[in-house]
TrEMBL record:
<dbReference type="GO" id="GO:0030643">
    <property type="term" value="P:intracellular phosphate ion homeostasis"/>
</dbReference>
<dbReference type="InterPro" id="IPR026022">
    <property type="entry name" value="PhoU_dom"/>
</dbReference>
<comment type="function">
    <text>Plays a role in the regulation of phosphate uptake.</text>
</comment>
<dbReference type="InterPro" id="IPR038078">
    <property type="entry name" value="PhoU-like_sf"/>
</dbReference>
<dbReference type="GO" id="GO:0005737">
    <property type="term" value="C:cytoplasm"/>
</dbReference>
<comment type="similarity">
    <text>Belongs to the PhoU family.</text>
</comment>
<keyword id="KW-0963">Cytoplasm</keyword>
<keyword id="KW-0592">Phosphate transport</keyword>
<dbReference type="Pfam" id="PF01895">
    <property type="entry name" value="PhoU"/>
</dbReference>
<dbReference type="GO" id="GO:0006817">
    <property type="term" value="P:phosphate ion transport"/>
</dbReference>
<protein>
    <recommendedName>
        <fullName>Phosphate-specific transport system accessory protein PhoU</fullName>
    </recommendedName>
</protein>
<feature type="domain" description="PhoU">
    <location>
        <begin position="121"/>
        <end position="205"/>
    </location>
</feature>
<dbReference type="GO" id="GO:0045936">
    <property type="term" value="P:negative regulation of phosphate metabolic process"/>
</dbReference>
<feature type="domain" description="PhoU">
    <location>
        <begin position="17"/>
        <end position="103"/>
    </location>
</feature>
<comment type="subunit">
    <text>Homodimer.</text>
</comment>
<dbReference type="InterPro" id="IPR028366">
    <property type="entry name" value="PhoU"/>
</dbReference>
<keyword id="KW-0813">Transport</keyword>
């Protein structure tokens, strides 16, 4: 029985990691599509969004099945619960990548604001990085790396502030870019939400390692 459980837990673990890599690639592709005005790539992201959703359903079903069948305790239970909870955060991050793809199509490459797009490119790189680091922290079961995700999140919040200021400036200067800058603000918000979901994943990694449920942003603020 123990060997069967370990085999299925390894399968569940690998499935979660694979889903994380898929989400990471999707976020990276969505950001590149938006910056490069690549509507074809954006449409592909939208068309393939079901792949992330399907993986979430499969992993959730597998997690519930293992809890019911094996009734795991302590560390084993925490690992299954971590995946059960964190998989929904990955799926929601994928939803925001899809939103960015929709924004790429809506803007249609007209009346762009290069200054804002440069900031969005930087924000997109940082967002892709936090997704990659969250997945790596899970693979390594590294709770300190999970806690360190907050630093990237803080950088993203700072870039977002710059974007909002630049968006306002651009809209005041040229009414032709109003549609574009509205989409820029929405994309920046999507990137922030993706990062927030990775912080959630980080919190579940801390739970996996320590058994404690923490709020990493609150802990970071208390240390400042």
């Amino acid at each position: 029985m123990r060997r069967l459980f370990d085999d299925e837990l390894d399968e569940l673990d690998n499935g979660f990691t694979e889903m994380g890599v898929l989400v990471s690639h999707t976020v990276q592709k969505a950001v590149a599509a938006f910056i490069n005005h690549d509507r074809e790539s954006a449409q592909q992201i939208i068309d393939e969004d079901h792949q992330i959703n399907d993986r979430e359903i499969e992993l959730e079903a597998k997690s519930f099945e293992m809890i019911a069948l094996y009734q795991p305790v302590t560390t084993d239970l925490r690992e299954v619960v971590t995946i059960l909870k964190a998989v929904s955060d990955l799926e929601r991050a994928g939803d925001h990548a899809r939103n960015i793809a929709h924004a790429t199509i809506d803007v249609k490459g007209q009346h762009r604001a290069p200054e804002v797009e440069s900031l969005l490119a930087s924000m997109g790189e940082q967002t892709t990085e936090i997704v990659k680091q969250a997945i790596q922290a899970y693979v390594n079961k590294d709770d300190q790396a999970a806690r360190d995700l907050v630093t990237i999140n803080n950088h993203l919040a700072t870039i977002n502030d710059h974007i909002l200021h630049e968006v306002y400036t651009q809209a005041q200067a040229d009414s032709n870019v109003i549609l574009a800058v509205m989409k820029y603000s929405a994309v920046a918000a999507d990137l922030l939400r993706i990062a927030d979901y990775m912080i959630n994943v980080g919190e579940w990694i801390v739970y996996l390692k320590t058994g404690q449920i923490v709020e990493l942003k609150l802990m970071n603020n208390s240390e400042d």
